Amino acid sequence: MSDQRTGLWLIGARGSVATTAVSGLLALRAGLAPPTGCVTARPELAEVDLPSWDDIVVGGHDVVTTSLDKRAEQLAHAGVLPHHLLPSLAEGLRAADAEIRDGYHPATHRGAQATAADRLTADLVSFRERHGLARVVVVNVSSTEPPVPHVPEHDDLALLEAALADPERAVLPPSSLAAYAALRAGCPFVDFTPSAGVALPALDRLAVDLGLPYAGRDGKTGETLLRTVLAPMFTARGLRVRSWSGTNLLGGGDGATLQDAEHAASKLESKARGLAALLGEPVTAPLHIDNVPDLGEQKTAWDHVSFEGFLGARMSLQFTWTGLDSSLAAPLVLDLARLVAAAHADGQSGALGALAFFFKDPLGHDEHRFAEQTRELHAWARGLGRYGA
After folding, report:
1. Residues in domain Myo-inositol-1-phosphate synthase GAPDH-like (predicted)?
2. Residue 315: what are its φ and ψ, rounded to 5°?
């Protein structure tokens, strides 16, 4: 068994981001496409010993039943995947789809959450053993959840596990139950969403106790990526930002999910925290998210920045970002799987703050400036021990 053989287990495995990531992995493995958008393929990380594309085996959980090959056809029609690649990817997509198991949904689960956690954990252990994997990295790319109210059980592992055994309570949201199950299975966890996920004190304690690394949260792919580059420009030049307004137009599954105010709240909070940290002070920053089904998989963000210069002169900057979010996110999912696998092999545990580069609301780090995040990522990656040594 190769010690680099690594599982990538996707929560939301039949969604747009997951399907694009799996399709991209298959294309890279077959030499059908270059690794455009993959940070781990950059020259700066060329000497870092990471699992190769051939070393990665895919599985996952999902509550939907549309197969990966059918979902890939839909994404090709939406312009995310190239039509000419589908015949070459079909067999690999069907093989990956065969490794997807039923996910947890609170509306359909009966009984204690501990029972659901046991089932999710068993799926991960079986996957790892069946494929002879050295490790499995679990990445959450499921739909955004509403913010969760704080309860004492989220702060204390003993209280949490007692509550999970109570059939009358649902103390964890689905993303956090997935994180709990992953950690119990001995798997590192990555949260690519703004949901609660692993970002609970009790789960941090569990990860550290078990010697497992985790990373998150809320993948940085579009508008916020631009903000983390542009906001430091204003502060470095001593220009005062008076307001930073934004409008996001979304189609596809994200648009449908985030048109609900409760679900959108997690995304809005994540974006607001990052902007305030970048500017060094609170700023008026209204942000609207609108569902426009006609856009399909496309996302458009428009920002208006009002700023003040010398002697109070008032000026503004406006920019528009239009992109296919799944195409931007998928290579980062593959990057994170490789980097977190290497961190696990290196014996690291707890929040991987050096991976703040990838996230809007990074766990374990309060640095939001993109240039600084880039330098820290490269330095951290070069310091990893030889993978599998």
Report:
1. 222-326
2. -140, 175
What's the rounded Cα separation, in Å, for the pair 293 and 252? Answer: 6
Measured in degrees and rounded to the nearest 5, phi and psi for residue 347 equal 85, 15
Q: Which of 46, 83, 27 is nearest to 338 (CA)?
A: 46
Whole-structure pTM value: 0.92
pLDDT digits (tens, 9 = 90+) for 160-191: 999 999 999 999 999 999 999 999 999 999 99
Distance between CA atoms of residues 102 and 99, nearest Å: 10
Q: Return all residues near 90 (Cβ < 8 A) that are at least 6 apart.
A: 69
> How far apart are alpha carbons 86 and 88 in whole angstroms?
5
In 10 A of CB 257, how many CB atoms?
18
- Residue ranges with strand state E in the chain: 6-11, 56-62, 100-102, 135-140, 189-191, 213-216, 240-250, 287-291, 298-308, 314-324, 350-351
- Cα–Cα distance for residue pair 212/189, rounded to 1 Å: 8
